[in-house]
Write a structure and sequence with these properties.
The complex is a heterodimer. Chain A has helices at about 1-30, 40-45, 50-65, 70-115, 120-140, 150-155, 165-180, 185-195, 195-200, 205-230, 240-250, 265-285, 290-315, 330, and strands at about 145, 155-160, 160, 235. Chain A is an all-alpha fold. A 6-stranded parallel beta sheet of chain B has the order 2-1-3-4-5-11, with helices on both faces. In chain B, strand 6, helix 6 and strand 7 form a beta-alpha-beta unit. Chain B folds into 2 domains: about 40-130 and about 280-310, Response regulator (Rossmann fold, 3-Layer(aba) Sandwich); about 140-275, Rossmann fold (3-Layer(aba) Sandwich), CATH 3.40.50.2300. Chain B is an alpha/beta fold. Chain B is about 45% helix and about 15% strand. The chains are: A mainly alpha, B alpha/beta.
Chain lengths: ~325, ~325
């Protein structure tokens, strides 16, 4: 029995999100003829992009044991700035400006956390309102619109694959490289799993944290640009509440809220899973009130999975009587 | 003990998955062999009465004209507006009716629909400059004129009629709300009145209060105020009362929209009148237009340049209140 559980736990940890995704998609496709249309599949891939891209930065933040609650506001502000600058700088220039702005906004978050030493939760809760207010002030609460041909063409498909989804794939490739192939990525894991040990082994924790927040801002800006491309416009109140959906996607993808463990592949799968569920609820004509219940349920499942996985890991390895305060947990997560 | 716990966890997970599948599966089965054309409707939000009435109009219109009907709720989220319409389009609809929470997000939706050869009719709010087939809106200009007629008629009965009135305007961006004031000003001037003051109160109640106070300070002889929406009218009547005057007998206040609070104020004798839009008729009209477009007939627009079709509005006063608001 224990062996089966161990195996199940390990497989679930590696690929649980993809198993869920495949199972749900298969069930939906079997029941609903609209769901399995090629058109709809490309819609889903398109619909997952803003949250999917922004979730990359959040994965870094959560693995390092931090949070960025301001990411929704960052998306809105950078989207507004990007769209408003298209007429001046052209689309690519405007996106570059938006990315720089997002990077700086993230940097400000990082500075508040590392220099003033406010906890990430409180610091980014504050900037959540501040950045949103900047967006309102910048746009005077009027929508900014553009019909620039290059801008709108990014919302189209390349054969059946949305161009935005290809952009998202490249973003994930960049994220993979940073997280798994650079010392920086290792430091992020190290800080998240044991901050003290990281400090003692000579990692510049403050600098890494600063860069993690800047990354969250950068990918937030990229997600904001994707959202603007979807809407051909931006408004100060877009993407409100996205921070929680993004965190939910990251956690659903298997990243531990306590930091130190997680995968980008899981986040990728979870972002698509979210889009699949949203899309399926429309396809099945689920009433809007019930949609909210479903969303809440997914959040609960995401969070309880985090706890459950912990428990399986405890089962997988016999708990060692550890001198550390939190018995076993840290060791099991490597 | 631990094994039992883990077993429970697995069962819990499976149960949740099963529930999800069932929740997704439990909807009415599509009747086989039916070839009814489908109309999709995406609504701003299903909470406000206004949009509930509009939805009922579209739904009943579809029933009467023999269309199948699919609804989507944007919940005031422009991203959901776009994705929901995309989803409707892939569900095999023949025509799309949208009441957009954010007009500026309409162009990508309309472009997608056009690529698929599906006509788009916008119901109220605004088009955001998209290539829609038609937009159905309330006759705001006419509503302003009705308000002016009513105000002139009431004021002419009075001894204190100085023939000076004020207008409190919505935010300049709201092109349809702005027309209400334009209609009012044009008509009231024709009737021999003078617009002593025109100020903007940005759609909201507290600014309506402040602006009305400023107006009465600058023009104490003013006998009427027209507000482009009801929240500002409610602010204005409070300002009139705080100045020790009556918002019916001394400074006649007329609003626009027939919000529930405004109806209460009319019942309580604080607000003289408001203009009611007809969301049910608007929704129904959209289905009629969709039907015409699907049969290949041309539409007759009120304004061909903007592809607008207007729906009449009506005056609500204390006298006819019970007729339109029975409860």
């Amino acid at each position: 029995m224990k062996q089966i559980l161990n195996k199940f736990g390990r497989i679930w940890e590696r690929a649980g999100i993809f198993i869920m995704l495949a199972a749900l998609a298969a069930v939906f496709a079997a029941i609903n003829p609209d769901f399995r249309k090629a058109n709809n599949i490309s819609n889903i891939l398109l619909q997952c992009t803003p949250i999917g891209i922004a979730a990359i930065g959040m994965t870094f933040a959560i693995i390092s044991g931090a949070f960025d609650l301001s990411v929704g506001s960052t998306m809105a502000l950078t989207a507004c700035v990007t769209v408003s600058l298209i007429g001046v700088l052209g689309f690519y220039g405007a996106v570059a400006a938006g990315l720089v702005l997002g990077f700086l906004l993230g940097l400000v978050n990082g500075l508040i956390v590392t220099k003033i030493r406010i906890s990430p939760f409180i610091a980014t809760l504050g900037t959540l309102w501040v950045y949103r207010a900047f967006a309102y002030i910048y746009t005077q609460n009027k929508p900014v619109q553009s019909t620039d041909a290059v801008f709108t063409s990014w919302g189209e498909n390349f054969v059946y694959v949305p161009r935005l989804f290809i952009v998202m794939l490249f973003c994930y490739l960049a994220g993979f490289f940073l997280l798994y192939k650079t010392p920086f990525g290792r430091y992020v894991f190290a800080i998240g799993s044991n901050r003290r040990a990281a400090i003692l082994s000579g990692i510049n924790v403050a600098r890494v944290t600063l860069f993690v927040f800047a990354l969250a801002g950068l990918f937030g800006a990229m997600g904001g640009a994707a959202l603007a491309v979807r809407l051909w416009s931006a408004k100060a109140d877009t993407a409100s509440g996205y921070e929680l959906m993004i965190i939910a996607a990251v956690v659903l993808g298997g990243t531990s809220l306590k930091g130190g463990s997680g995968t980008l592949a899981g986040t990728f799968g979870a972002a698509i899973l979210f889009a699949v569920i949203y899309n399926a609820m429309d396809m099945f004509q689920v009433q809007s009130y019930w949609q909210k219940i479903a969303l809440g349920g997914i959040l609960l499942i995401a969070l309880s999975l985090d706890g459950l996985r912990r428990k399986y890991m405890m089962l997988a390895i016999e708990p060692v009587q550890s001198p550390l305060k939190d018995k076993g947990e840290r060791i099991n997560e490597k | 003990m631990r094994n039992k716990l883990a077993l429970f966890d697995i069962i819990f997970c499976i149960a949740v998955a099963v529930c999800l599948v069932f929740a997704a599966g439990c909807k009415k089965k599509a009747q086989p062999g039916e070839t009814k054309k489908v109309i999709g409707f995406s609504v701003v939000d299903m909470q406000p009465n206004f949009f509930q009435d509009m939805e009922r109009g579209v739904r009943e219109g579809c029933e009467q004209m023999g269309f199948e009907y699919k609804l989507h709720d944007q919940k005031y989220d422009s991203a959901l507006l776009v994705s929901g319409c995309e989803n409707l389009l892939t569900r095999g609809i023949s025509a799309l009716i949208v009441s957009p929470c954010e007009p500026s997000a309409m162009p990508p939706v309309v472009k997608k629909a056009k690529n698929m050869g599906i006509p788009v009719i916008i119901c109220d709010i605004g088009s955001g400059g998209s290539e829609h087939d038609a937009i159905v809106i309330s006759d705001c200009f006419g509503g302003g004129e009705i308000a002016a007629d009513y105000m002139a008629k009431e004021l002419q009965k009075r001894a204190n009629n100085t023939k000076k009135v004020g207008v409190i305007k919505c935010m300049p961006g709201h092109i349809y709300a702005v027309r209400r004031g334009e209609g009012f000003v044009k008509k009231i001037q024709q009737l021999g009145f003078q617009v002593a003051s025109t100020l903007c109160a940005n759609d909201v109640r507290d600014q309506g209060y402040r602006v009305a106070q400023d107006m009465m300070t600058a023009h104490p002889e003013m006998v009427g105020i027209f507000c482009e929406n009801d929240p500002m009218a409610l602010g204005a009547i409070q300002a009139v009362r705080d100045a020790g005057k009556s918002p019916i007998d001394d400074v006649l206040v007329v609003g626009f929209n027939a919000d529930p609070e405004a109806i209460e104020a009319i019942k309580a004798g604080n607000l003289a009148a408001t203009i009611q839009q007809a969301p049910y008729e608007m929704g129904k009209q959209c289905v009629g237009l969709a039907d015409k477009l699907l049969k290949g007939q041309a539409l007759t627009y009120t304004d061909p340049n903007l592809r607008e079709i207007t729906i009449p509005v009506r005056l609500i006063t204390r006298e006819n209140l019970s007729q339109y608001f029975p409860r």
